[in-house]
Amino acid sequence: NIVLEDINLEIPPGARVAIQSRSDTERAAFAELLTREVLPARGSVIIAGHPLNELHQAVLAARIGYAHSRPYLFDGTLGDNLLMPLRIKPQLPPSEAGRRNRALTEAYRSGNSTDPMQAEWVDPALAGLSDGEDIRDWWFKLVEAMGIDEMMFRRTLRSRFDPHRHPDLARRIVELRPEIAERLKAAGLDQAIHRFDPDQFNPAIPLGGNILYATPRRDITQEGLAAEGQFLRLVDESGLARDALAIARAVVQILRQTFGRDGTDHPLFRRLGIEEDTYIRLIAIADKAERNGLAGLPDEDRALLLTVPFLLTAEQIGSSFPEEYKQKILEIRRRKSPLLREAARDMFVGVDEDTYLPRLSALENAIFGRVSLMAGGKTEEVENLVAQVLDEHGLRRAMASIIYDLPTGLGGTRLPTVLQERAAFSRAGIKRPDILILDRALASHDSASRSRTRERLRDLLPDATIIFMEDSFANPDHYDLFIEIRNGRIDDISRGRESDLDDGGVADLRRKQRLIAQTDLFGSLDARNQRLLAFSAQWFEARAGDVIFRGGEKADAAYLCLEGHAEMHWPEKGLGDRPVASIGPGRLIGDLSIILGEDRQLNLISVTDTKWLRIGAEEYRAVVETDPAVALNLLHTVASHLTGAAELLRHAHIDPAVQEGQSFEELGK
Known about the structure:
Blueprint: E1 16-20, H1 24-34, E2 46-47, E3 50-51, H2 57-63, E4 64-68, H3 78-82, H4 94-97, H5 102-109, H6 132-146, H7 149-157, H8 167-175, H9 177-186, E5 193-195, H10 207-212, E6 214-216, H11 222-226, H12 229-237, H13 241-259, H14 267-270, H15 276-292, H16 299-306, H17 314-317, H18 323-343, E7 348-350, H19 362-367, E8 369-371, H20 378-392, H21 396-400, H22 417-429, E9 435-439, H23 447-460, E10 465-470, E11 481-486, E12 489-495, H24 496-501, H25 505-517, H26 527-536, E13 538-542, E14 547-549, E15 557-563, E16 566-569, E17 581-583, E18 588-589, H27 591-596, E19 603-606, E20 610-616, H28 617-626, H29 628-651, H30 664-668
């Protein structure tokens, strides 16, 4: 079956091209033609004077980047996938390039690859870079171009990282702990966290961690801990087993009373992190202990019961956790924790203010504790403050780069879809290609984000030809070349730059449309409605002191400010009086009067020389009534104005409902 036919097209070098097609198959076929994944049945593709089918595959791989919204990610880390375009061959020093060791000789004789697997494969020179640090800097610029640097920074802040792989970052975070503690206290947020203190019980860490005053070096499951016979023997020999078993038995009884045997599907239970089968076993063990006593339990049951204090926190158990057990745990810590920490140093690391704790998140390491489950809205405030401190000390890029170590899983199954999409974008751009093809690679971004990304890509890759492929484009005139493919054929071609050079009415219409598309209210409109508004709009200029419209006049148009400064005043007031509102470029005025069908309430006076687009009332009303996106944006605008008015009244200590017995309307008059 023919997917594309009669495609006759020339794309100038360095152009930004928009290709619109509602068919996924057509877009994929066009991209595969340019990447030589498929060959045309008739005709040819010429790039910079070279027939595409004659170029070496290494040239195509290095100079053409392709990304779409459903990429395949290989099992490994995100960094492994991002750097794959730069891994063409082993990078061997000249002194070793000609050497052959026995392993390579045997590999050659047996027909296997002779590439040394232990060699460094990443070649920064393919992207015109010098080393790995340059690659990370370039990758972070791509992240900033997508506008997700803040998201990745925050994601890392909430995640754990290996301090042995990133020792400098771990050291810097530890050094900032005193400053962060002071800032939290000054902001009144110190009560929202449970900071580590050797003399205090910490309800946000497991009971076993409180006993040892330590955190695990690695993830430990109940079954895994129960199988650590040596550690449990040390607990027993140190005389802790009796107290630990009593605490564990009390905790299991609390859980049984709370959830019963059939409450394991409750969200609160799932938050505990206990497997359902393990929970049922623990209840059965607690029943045995009630009948036969703790001393009568088999070794296997004792081992599993002893794991309970090492996995649950007092906050997870709730207010029913007895205070007496907290004091008992502190007493055990004072007597036995140094001995136990030394014996279990392979499993646990002692809590120390000068040590980075690997099983805590970067945020928890920074605050040297954990945020309380009861912190509520202060949780975000704590995170914001820590993020601000790290940013002030220049750690934003280093934090975001930790996402390199994020495991992807086979096919990217361990990553959310939005992160897979952005990984594909970064993988295509990391090699700084001459041609970058994006097939809905920014599908999760809104129109404004896509526009920003497009402009930033132009700055990052000024000489590259960038091809954006989507099922629709709200602002096709923002591209150098717009191509619409329908039913496998080119249906329309428009060239943005050539149109802008025309002196006729078309260029004027396009200019108006671009200005309208740049506003928050009209940016989400489709091209048809934007053209309708542009067609009805007229250029309008006012000198300083001119009254553009007066209160009491009929609302016959809305005004979009393009240049200068104006003010809104009550009819009896004028320049020099306190304005109701100040108007600057990008602000639309007079639209609400059109929708309500009422006369103007205020005067609009030009403070400086101003330039406007005057949009006719009927055309504006028609667009609002037929486009839900505009209506929703308008609702947001009105809501923000009302919120702003309420804030002004609050700061002015005015209660309009009771002020001198007046109603709100009377007060307004």
